[in-house]
Amino acid sequence: xxxxxxxxxxxxxxxxxxxxxxxxxxxxxxxxxxxxx
Length: 37
Known about the structure:
Number of strands: 0
Structural class: mainly alpha
Radius of gyration: 10 Å
Distance between the termini: 32 Å
Largest sheet: none
Strand content: under 5%
């Protein structure tokens, strides 16, 4: 759980400020919204 979480950190550090769980869902939703828009 630590290695996979460290990879997405550098990819989207803005989407993961401090919440590695709740923010993960928000980041996914933001990516989908950005793609739709």
